[in-house]
Amino acid sequence: EKGVKRVHIVNPENGALLQELYTRDGAGTMISGDLYDGIHQAKITDVNGIHDLIAPLIKQGTLVDRPKAVLEKDIHQYHVYTRDDLIVACGQLKMYENGYAEIGCLVVSPAYR
Fold first, then answer.
1. Distance between CA atoms of residues 87 and 90, nearest Å
2. How far apart (Å, rounded) are the C-alpha atoms in residues 94 and 76?
3. What is the pLDDT of residue 34?
């Protein structure tokens, strides 16, 4: 419970330590005892992150507009992939009768494609 939650193994190369410390993805290997990345059902606190992720695609006309109020109302339909608390992808799963479902709003951050 107490103690070190993450350990970083860094190659002895020029700039590797700085990259490991000051970038989200680093340059080495991390061993983590906490949730560093993963997929979970979206929470109301994720609405701003989802909106920030999808806004460029809405502006381009690629994605249907989803105002924050609609995201809040339908948040139970969304799942997010986070990396160190940053939302890097999202998807909407709309459930219908008889077990049918539809996937929508499937977006991945350009930095993680």
1. 7
2. 9
3. 66
36's tokens: 């560093």
- Got the DSSP string for the chain? --S-SEEEE--SSTTHHHHHHHSSS-SSEEEESS--EEEEE--GGGHHHHHHHHHHHHHHTSS----HHHHHHTGGGEEEEEETTEEEEEEEEEE-GGG-EEEEEEEE-GGG-
Cβ contact 93:79 at 8 Å: yes
Q: Is the pTM of this model over 0.85?
A: no
Alpha-carbon radius of gyration of the chain: 18
Tokens of 104: 């929508």
